[in-house]
Amino acid sequence: MAAGERLICAAADLVEGGAGIRFQVDRHGEPAPAFVVRYRGQPRAYLNRCGHVPVELDWQPGAFFDSSGLYLICAVHGALFAPETGRCLSGRCAGRGLEPLAVIERSGGVFILES
Question: Mean pLDDT across the stretch 93-110?
Answer without folding.
Answer: 92
